[in-house]
Amino acid sequence: MNIIRLERSGPLHGSVKIQGSKNSSLSLMAACCLCEDPVTLSGVPDIYDIRVIEEIASDIGMTAQRQENGDMILDPRSIHSANIDKAKSSSYRASYYFIGALLARFGKVSIGFPGGDNFVSRPIDQHLKGLKAMGATFTFHEDYYVVEAKKLTGADIYFDTITSGATINCMLAAVLAEGRTVLRGAAKDPEVVDTAIMLNEFGANISGAGTDTIRITGVKHIEGGHHTVIPDRLIAGSFLMSAGVAGGSVTVTDVIPDHLGSCIAKLTEIGLHIEYGDQSITASSTGKLKATRVRTAMYPGFATDLQQPLTALLTQARGRSIINEKIYPHRFQHVAQLRRMGADIEMRGSAAFIRGGAPLKGSWVHASDIRAGTCLILAGMAAEGITTITGVEHIERGYEDAIRAFRSIGATIRLEQVDAAQAEEKLRISSIQQ
Ligand SMILES: CC(=O)N[C@H]1[C@@H](OP(=O)(O)OP(=O)(O)OC[C@H]2O[C@@H](n3ccc(=O)[nH]c3=O)[C@H](O)[C@@H]2O)O[C@H](CO)[C@@H](O)[C@@H]1O
Ligand SMILES: C=C(OP(=O)(O)O)C(=O)O
């Protein structure tokens, strides 16, 4: 099995070109099923989740071909099925976008339950509520469910909670539905806006994406064309944080700085010096970091996906920091791993109290999900000795090549192969020694 080994690193110097957004690509690729003509997507990252969608696309008859220049051409003209393989749909989170994208066309979609990172509870009740309002019915089986709608009709939907997934799913379903759909309490995330922009470019009639009320007037068909995926703001944020952990200066390029507003504000509060241009952001740090309080929120608030790397950063900030996780109250699997490395973190409900400044030491630790992986990479850069991270496959769900990118800015990090049983034993011992 693969593990990541890293040593204390820094100061970091250099720039990292940021890949296209995972979360946007997951939505855009499914959205291609709504089109009548081929779609060329620029900037789709080459990561695990995307490769699963390529397989799903091929299973249902939509070819998805990577070009030499990295573009992906998706051809929906031969889609013949809306039966999504159960195991494939459960191997990542956003498989449910195939419901919104295929329901109007086929009237029936069969699909496995959503997978993705496990934060104890990730309900899909708002997807159900929205799609039911548009005329869909759901039948649940042990490891898959079937969604049916003889006809999808526009509806007025008020989300009980702000959710990017349900906003996108209902928006997809509404594009070819009959009549007008209004999504109230919609998520304002850049990935929602990116999806709406692409669909409008191809002939959909969506207004208000980026605000909390989105209006969609159903159209008879949409065409295809070319679209460039937005940059991955979450990966950009994690590289900026690495400058705080290890010192030095890190520039992320090919980004949209506006998408990182709350992250930039928080890093500035913590003591990083931030400069940005039209498409780049530079974070520099002398190593003097201030403790802070953070409350995660839906966009434009501080993203839950940046909470885990931020926790690593705050272990290096003198004083007591408090992180309040409001989106996924149980998203703290990384804390036990950081404690193994010597971090002083106390949990009270969905809040982490971090006493920063305690020296970290290298240990065997496990990344249970993508951002826990980023968190541990950052912590490893600050730790004395060698940090060994298992669970590399989770990190690969989100990053095209995290090792190469972190190495290019000066981190001492490498990928190695070890015997799985030996790694298990090392992890067990490190958890006892904690
Ligand atoms: C593939 C993808 O885009 N994943 C992102 C997406 O996940 P995902 O789309 O699953 O997350 P949502 O935006 O839907 O979830 C936001 C909040 O709404 C709640 N909720 C959601 C749906 C629902 O039907 N009922 C409900 O209560 C969730 O538990 C959570 O507290 O947004 C999350 C929150 O920014 C990010 O962490 C994920 O990286
Ligand atoms: C939670 C995440 O992903 P997913 O929703 O795909 O599990 C993430 O990207 O941090």
Write the layout of secondary structure elements.
Blueprint: E1 2-7, E2 12-17, H1 22-31, E3 39-42, H2 48-60, E4 63-66, E5 72-75, H3 86-89, H4 97-106, E6 108-112, H5 125-133, E7 137-140, E8 144-148, E9 156-158, H6 164-175, E10 180-184, H7 190-201, E11 206-207, E12 213-217, E13 225-228, H8 233-246, E14 248-253, H9 261-270, E15 273-276, E16 280-285, E17 293-295, H10 307-314, E18 319-324, H11 333-340, E19 344-348, E20 351-356, E21 364-366, H12 370-382, E22 386-390, H13 392-396, H14 402-408, E23 412-417, H15 420-433
Parallel strand pairs: 2-14, 3-13, 9-10, 17-18, 21-22
Antiparallel strand pairs: 1-22, 1-23, 3-5, 4-5, 6-8, 7-8, 10-12, 11-12, 14-16, 15-16, 18-20, 19-20
Helix pairs in contact: 1-2, 1-4, 1-7, 4-6, 5-6, 6-7, 8-10, 8-12, 10-12, 11-12
Task: Walk me through this protein's architecture.
- By secondary structure, this protein is α+β, with helices and mostly antiparallel strands.
- The protein folds into two domains: 2-19 and 231-433, Alpha-beta prism (UDP-n-acetylglucosamine1-carboxyvinyl-transferase, Chain); 22-228, Enolpyruvate transferase domain (UDP-n-acetylglucosamine1-carboxyvinyl-transferase, Chain, Alpha-beta prism), CATH 3.65.10.
- The chain contains 15 helices and 23 strands.
- It has helices spanning 22-31, 48-60, 86-89, 97-106, 125-133, 164-175, 190-201, 233-246, 261-270, 307-314, 333-340, 370-382, 392-396, 402-408, 420-433; strands at residues 2-7, 12-17, 39-42, 63-66, 72-75, 108-112, 137-140, 144-148, 156-158, 180-184, 206-207, 213-217, 225-228, 248-253, 273-276, 280-285, 293-295, 319-324, 344-348, 351-356, 364-366, 386-390, 412-417.
- The strands form six sheets. A four-stranded mixed beta sheet has the order 21-22-1-23. Strands 2-14-16-15 form a four-stranded mixed beta sheet.
- The longest helix has 14 residues, at 233-246.
- The protein is globular.
- The two termini are 24 Å apart.
- The model has no long low-confidence stretch (mean pLDDT 96).
- Bound molecules: uridine-diphosphate-N-acetylglucosamine and phosphoenolpyruvate (PEP).
- It catalyses: phosphoenolpyruvate + UDP-N-acetyl-alpha-D-glucosamine = UDP-N-acetyl-3-O-(1-carboxyvinyl)-alpha-D-glucosamine + phosphate.
- Keywords: Cell cycle, Cell division, Cell shape, Cell wall biogenesis/degradation, Cytoplasm, Peptidoglycan synthesis, Pyruvate, Transferase.
